[in-house]
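Technical annex B. To support the medicinal chemistry partners, we prepared a structural model of the target in complex with uridine-diphosphate-N-acetylglucosamine, based solely on the information shown next.
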Amino acid sequence: MKNNVLVIGGAGYIGSHVVLALLKSGYGVTVFDNFSTGRRENLFPEAGLMEGDIRRYGDLTAAMKGGFHALVHLAAFKAVGESMLDPGKYAENNISGTVNILNAAVASGVHNVVFSSSAAVYGEPHYLPVDEDHPVNPENFYGFTKLEIERLLFWYDKLKGLRYAALRYFNASGYDPEGRIKGLEQNPQNLLPIIMEAAAGIREKLMIFGNDYATEDGTGVRDYIHVSDLADAHVRALAHIAAKDESLLLNLGSETGTSVLVMLETARRITGRPIPAEFTARRAGDPAKLVGTSARAEKVLGWKARHSGVESLVATTWRMYERLGRSD
Ligand code: UD1
C-alpha cells in the first residue's frame, strides 16, 4: 500500500514513461487506461492493469479498491485544435473525469495526486522565461481544462487534505533513450513527430507555421523537454508531497528555446534524410516564443533536465520512427 501507485493514463505517451520511472524507483504500479489513445505495447509485465474510463466513477472506485498510496493523473485529451472545435468532449473527459478521480480518491483514502498540467495555462507570455507566478490566461480550451483541474486540486487540498503536485510541462518530446517504450504515439500533432513522419516518408512534408516572427530565424521558439526528464520529475514530486505533506505547483521545462528551423536542421543531420519543408501562414494562437524557467523544480525537487538537448530529443524520437519508413 505505502508503495503502490495508480497511474491513470499509464499506457499513453507520457504515462508509459512515468510508469517506467516509477518501476525503476521501486514503486508498485497499476496502470488505469481506456486505451483511447494509450497503447497496449506500452504496458510492462511488472505493472498491473485496470481497464476503465475516468468518465465512469465506478471504474475508478473499483480500481482504487486495491489501496494506493498515490495516483498520477495523465488521462486528459491534449489536442489543442480539437479542443477548440469540440469543447464538450474536453470538458467531459478532462474536467468531469477529474472530478470523478478526485472524488474516488477521497472515498478510497488516496491522499497524493501528481497531475500532468501544461504551460498552456499561461497563454501568451508577458515576460520570458515564464515562471510559476506568471499570470494564467489560457488561450485555448485545452489549456482552460488544465487550469480548471489545477483549481479543483487546490480546493480538494484545502477541503479534503489531498496533497498534489501540478506539473506544468512545456513541450514534451523524445522517447526513452534506452528504447524500452514500444508504442508510438497515435495521431501526433506536435512539431517533432511531424518532422519525423516527413523524414520516414509517411508524410509529404513539414509545413512551417510562419517565418516572420520576431525570433532569430523568424520561426516559432519553444522549450522542448524530454519525456524521460518529465517522468523523473513525477517520481520526485510524488516523494516530495507525500513526505512533506505539502502541495506543489511547478514548471517543467528545459529553459532552452529551440526554433522550428533549428529542430528541422538537427533532424536532417541526425536522420540523414532531406525532410521536405515549406513555409506557410502563422497558426492562430501561436506565440512567437515560449520558454519557461524551472528554477523552482530545481530548488524544491533537485530536478534538472538531463536528456533535453535538441540532439537527444531528435535521436530518441527517430529511433521510433525510423522503422516505420522501412516497413512501408
Ligand atoms: C501546444 C500547447 C502545449 C500542449 C501542446 C500539446 C499552447 C501554448 N501550447 O504546444 O501546452 O502541450 O500543444 O499538443 O497551447 N509547428 C510548425 N509546423 C507544424 C507543427 C508545429 O511549424 O506542423 C510549430 C508551431 O508553430 C510552434 C512549434 O512548431 O512554433 C511547436 O508546435 P507544437 O508542437 O504544436 O506545440 P505548441 O503549439 O507549442
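Notes passed to the chemistry partners:
The pocket of uridine-diphosphate-N-acetylglucosamine is lined by residues 78-80, 118-120, 140, 143, 171, 189-191, 194, 206-209, 220, 222, 260, 283, 286 (CB under 6 Å).
The radius of gyration is 19 Å.
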